[in-house]
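Request from the bench team (R.T.):
"We need a structural guess for the complex before ordering more zinc ion. Sequence and SMILES attached. Just send the tokens back."

Command: build protein-zinc ion structure.
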Amino acid sequence: MRRDPEFGTDINQTTFRITRIQSIRAVTMSSYREIKEECYEANLLLPEHKLIDLTFGNVSVADPARGVFAIKPSGVDYSVLQSNDMVVVDFEGRLVEGSLRPSSDTPTHRRLFQAFQGIRAVVHTHSRNAVAFAQAGREIPCLGTTHADYFYGSVPVTRLMTAQEIESAYEWETGNVIVERFKDLDPTQICAVLVQSHGPFAWGPSGRKAVENALALEVIAEMALKALQLNPNAPPIPQALLDKHFLRKHGAAAYYGQA
Ligand SMILES: [Zn+2]
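Reply to R.T.: structure attached below.
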């Protein structure tokens, strides 16, 4: 065994320890440590919940008081991702911290943080059943209580983007068509959308909750798809049942669960 002459320890062990301390220090010294770690953990939930194939997915987590958010770097495989790889960007689009390029969807996330007050995290996936509705150009109708537990009505689909929007600032304009679709909708009551011919975006008050909403979206998309296959004229959930299920979990009069 090789010994460090000065400390009498194994050199490889010492080197390992120093490298580890340096990487811990890099995270600890960042004043954005909390959002980077929350963002990292939320990103890892995407493959765990089988919400992504390849690298088609990303989560961002914001610190609205400081006008910044952390987001997954572009094209990095989930198996090698580290907390300190998260890139911090401000609400004006300037890089604040990070050595890697942020996700190419960053301008879409930024547009949503600007427009939707009260959200702290945004998730984008290409989960298959939600994408099926997006590609069909169809909203996901609320057909039952599983849907109503999470979304207060149909999950809307955006209009098709124009060639000019696609050829200019594509990702920013993607955010704009989402915001346009929510002109008369409350993003805290319907915390997901389908971008037509593309896929879903979901959001929430924390990274973990936004991923939960993205997972719920995929589950209710699969259920709706099957229900519509069995009965293309499946009726929407009665209003009283929609109100009961959504409002017992959300809002001022909520009483469901332990929160
Ligand atoms: Zn995408």
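Two things stood out. The mean pLDDT is 89. Residues 56, 124, 126, 198-199 surround zinc ion (CB under 6 Å).
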